[in-house]
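Contributing: when you submit paired examples, paste them exactly as shown. First protein:
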Amino acid sequence: MTIEEVAALAAAIRREVARAVVGQADTVETILVALFAGGHVLLEGPPGTAKTLIAHSFARATGLAFGRIQFTPDLMPGDIIGANLFNFQTSSFTLTRGPIFTDLLLADEINRTPPKTQAALLEAMQERTVTIDGKSLPLGERFTVIATQNPIEQQGVYPLPEAQLDRFLFKQLVGYPTAEEERRIIATHGARDAAMVPETWGVTTCADAAAIGAAAEAVAGVRLVDEVVDYIAALIRATRDHADLQGGASPRAGAMLATAARARAAIDARDFVIPDDVKALAPALLRHRLLLSPAAEIEGQQVEDVVAAIVAAIEAPR
């Protein structure tokens, strides 16, 4: 697949998702980049902001198998990955696969389940395999997790550990729509009962797993010059020395940022990365990897403000 074909495929997916989702252009673009970069996305926003509909619409548009897990406090790891269950008819154990065996997995309200269950996703997100009774079972090459969490309610939730947060390529903040977008939502979605079903809104399949895989291969061929590599390294290293940060980004974050920048360049029909690609993706890629210092928290600073200051301080190559 050529870079021009990757851009055309991205435009087609974006167009199909827009049939069901009103607004949320930044969120759609972030998931699109993650899809072509082979990464996972954490969506954080209040209820009713179309997080589930966006994930479902992406699955419909891309032709990927879709699965959903509604996380609850009593959910166990076996409920996610599956287990070997004893079959009394055959007197043998039979593998029962869990909902994780899919292409696009919606992990809904992931912070409502305990860390033990959250950890069931760690191996799957990093290695795209799961281990059941000592046997490794591969997931699909296009296995992607779109997780959601509600930032408003703080009771009965379990914050994701840093090790799992680092597995997410992006943490995207999903906000409320504009006044005009909200009017469109009320006028259109308020007229139908099946508002959460993408097919109802005419979302059609314009790709498949093979096409997404071919696009990912094309993305890997996008050029990343030494000056941009140095720029990414400088941004990542600056997070470890900043006075307002207690913990900085890992080397994995730098590698992920480079891959994501390649994907964004391909979506824009370019076969080379420019500094603007890095700048545009840095907030979503870094906000969940950085820890504010106690003094910065007392002052009421936000991670986004620190990231913006770092990006402004590091001179971009020309």
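Second protein:
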Amino acid sequence: MAKVLCVLYDDPTDGYPTEYARDDLPVIDHYPGGQSTPTPEAVDFTPGHLLGSVSGELGLRTFLEKAGHTLVVASDKVGDGSVFDRELADADVVISQPFWPAYLTPERIAAAPNLKLAITAGIGSDHVDLDAAIAHGVTVAEVTYCNSISVAEHVVMMTLSLVRNYLPSHQVVLDGGWNIADCVARSYDLEGMHVGTVAAGRIGLAVLRRLAPFDVKLHYTDRYRLSEDVERKLGLVWHESAADMVPHCDVVTINAPLHPETEGLFGDELLATMKRGAYLINTARAKIVDRDAVDRALRSGQSAGYAGDVWYPQSAPADHPWRTMPHHGMTPHISGSSLSAQTRYAVGTREILESWLAGRPIRDEYLIVDGGALAGTGAHSYSVTK
């Protein structure tokens, strides 16, 4: 029997919900490109409920305990003596979300001799040290595509919020004011702007498709060039690198995975090559940008705005400079954790567990590391340092 350790974020401050704003979710059975949504044998929860917090348990308890397995759910994951560290010692499986990552460092992997499977309930497995997972024979899997569209929608929302100066204008209403000049002094139209994405995979391409109707000029850079048909239909301009692309753009959105080639990419040097007054959107990973360089660019006026919902570390401390820098539109890491997305990544997590517990192959598109090497999606999206 397996011990499954699930690390999830805390319940709402006023308690686990007893009712929800909506009664149902739209039925989605496939993603753009044809990949089917997760197909577990069954589910034991109500779609659209809060599954990503501790009491939600990703809807796994009935399924696992009925089969004789042990499920431990915790939110405490930081510091010596955390519940995560205590329970990890004899865990066979660790599950966490990118929004509340349980960092599986080389030291933690070495201290968990039973660990065989690390599941990301969502997408983006950089909180797992992939070199260490490969060395110790730990399979790493994530629920590919489950919340890619969720994140893409968040990117569009943040782009419009920054360009149209929405958040400060809304604050004027909350404060009882009505000074229109204060609201529009930093407000522009998105129409006609040049918008570029760093990476045009599932999320980046979805962002491009959603922004095209705004009559913007679209740019992208990616290690894999899109087809001529896609480039033509969307009017895309391809660039060999981010350094080549960003000087042309009024808005840049980062949609790349974190790996050695992207870590620290947006520092003082690259930010200085962007147009003065350009906007930067980052829903990928915080370490792709230099934390303090972003703060400096906003305070100097080189950048007109920065929005994102990824931080390092997560959760971010109260004194993190991104909380107080000017002209930002930061959120906690929520872009891929809507109730709609939670349903998909919960059923995807169950599908992965069903396969692994039964000794069946895990879907290739879910795999990041398997058999001591990068595999599946991991071989396409990630690189390792050794």
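If you have annotations for the second protein, write them as plain sentences, like these:
The chain has 14 helices and 13 strands.
The first helix runs from residue 61 to 66.
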